[in-house]
């Protein structure tokens, strides 16, 4: 009688492989969370830089037709939303929004602070593209339960 060799894995071998795979999966979960938080931080930085660049371009175009140190464009931050606009030529008390951006819900963007900026979370630019208050150029990006970044808009 010819004996055939059995093929395949035993139950013990399968359990050992499954255990090793589960341990590897558990080790990658914290790394994945850190990667997501860093991605959110980088996205917030990119949105803030895009908003500031858009505000400078708008100020230099001077679509509000202002002169001197009057505000030609404004970058505003409200928690997770950013917006860029200029004064309404017909009604100077209103702002016409031309650009808006959004960061992730776990991310907070802050411009300036009460000590260094007359109007926190707002950067006003003149028709020359220069800020009216240099203290408002300082920013902080904060991720809940993660890293934060501080810097100065340039």
TrEMBL record:
UniProt KW Calcium keyword: no
Assigned keywords, A-Z: Membrane, Transmembrane, Transmembrane helix
InterPro entries: N_methyl_site (IPR012902), Pilin-like (IPR045584)
Residue intervals passing through the bilayer: 12-36
NCBIfam families per the UniProt record, alphabetical: IV_pilin_GFxxxE (TIGR02532)
Protein name (database record): Prepilin-type N-terminal cleavage/methylation domain-containing protein
């Amino acid at each position: 009688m010819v004996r055939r060799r059995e093929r395949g894995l035993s139950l013990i071998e399968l359990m050992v492989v499954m255990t090793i795979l589960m341990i590897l999966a558990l080790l990658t979960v914290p790394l994945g969370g850190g990667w997501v938080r860093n991605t959110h931080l980088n996205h917030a930085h990119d949105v803030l830089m895009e908003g500031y660049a858009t505000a400078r371009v708008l100020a230099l175009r001077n679509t509000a037709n202002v002169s001197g140190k009057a505000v030609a464009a404004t970058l505003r931050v409200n928690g997770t939303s950013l917006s860029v606009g200029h004064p309404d030529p017909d009604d100077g008390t209103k702002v016409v929004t031309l650009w808006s951006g959004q960061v992730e819900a776990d991310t907070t963007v802050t411009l300036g602070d009460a000590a260094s900026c007359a109007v926190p979370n707002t950067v006003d630019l003149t028709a020359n593209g220069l800020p009216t208050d240099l203290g408002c150029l300082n920013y902080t990006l904060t991720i809940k339960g993660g890293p934060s970044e501080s810097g100065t808009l340039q």
